Amino acid sequence: MESGPVVTCVLEESTRRRLFDERMLGALRALAGEVTVLADFTGADDVLARTEVLVTGWGTPLVDAAVVDRMPRLRAVLHSAGTVRGIVDDVVHERGILVSTQAEANAIPVAEFTLAVVLLANKGVLVPATTPYPGYDETRQGAGVGSHGTVAGVGNYGKRVGVVGASRTGRRVVEALRRHDLEVVVYDPYLSPAAADLLGVAPLGLDELVATSDVVTVHAPATPETYHQLDARRLATLRDGAVLVNTSRGSLVDTAALEAELARRADDGRGLTVVLDVTEPDPLPPTSPLLSDPRVLVTPHVAGSKGTELRRLAQGVVDELARLVSGVPLAHRVDHATLARSA
């Protein structure tokens, strides 16, 4: 029987332990002729010279021309995380080396998190975090349905949710939201009418989406084109009582403009709930008003894969290696032509 490819995993030890435990390493070894784990590319010239498949992840040093030159037999890079930006240099694609990513797998927990946030925010239970739920005292004292008048705008039925970016995560969010009685609209300049029809959503311009949605959830990639996409002008048009969610990249929301908008709404009484899993800067300084504002929930990058969800990423790498060994096309190959505008 022909031996499998020589596989080298270049991962920080803490990352390796979280993704590839002994069971997952065993799954790699079952497919490979040899599996070596390195923390970086320092030394190990003999191993790199034999390497045919490189496994990367969070914290892996840049795979640039100098690194690729040391791996003359390299034919595939299997990335165990989302974006390959900052990990895989353009030269890898240019030399015809296959690149695969687990961005699709990582989109699953982000979409789950977003769905939970949207549904809970529409029910009014996320913020303000320091005060009882509206109508709590009346309900506790037996007012029952009579207290519902205090939360007349609360609920999910018929609410419009605007999804900014039909990325992998954005599409999964759309699919999840459409299972509920919500109106889902999408802004993405690269989404064709046919693709929007397949998603079952109405495409809107960004200005209209922001101004008319009850919830605006951000899933576009960080590019020069999307920098501060939600700026002072657009933030000012958010509806009274709107919810803004960002699980994508902090740079898409102008932090200073958001702080100013929250301050204005505190003065004029218009409502705004904000959920940020990513920020700019990241982390926020301890003095940031966003950290003390009861209308704002800041979470520390918990939307993406954490804990047990990391095993899904590792399994995805194993599955891609199995396809490579079997001569089947990779399921999650990175398209270099669209990389500049994707997450």
UniProtKB/TrEMBL annotation:
The keyword Oxidoreductase applies. InterPro entries: D-2-hydroxyacid_DH, D-isomer_DH_CS, D-isomer_DH_NAD-bd, NAD(P)-bd_dom_sf. Keywords: NAD, Oxidoreductase. Residues 138-303 form the D-isomer specific 2-hydroxyacid dehydrogenase NAD-binding domain. Pfam families: 2-Hacid_dh_C. One of its GO terms (molecular function) is oxidoreductase activity, acting on the CH-OH group of donors, NAD or NADP as acceptor. It comes from the Bacteria. Belongs to the D-isomer specific 2-hydroxyacid dehydrogenase family. This is Hydroxyacid dehydrogenase. It comes from Xylanimonas protaetiae. The lineage of its organism: Bacteria, Bacillati, Actinomycetota, Actinomycetes, Micrococcales.
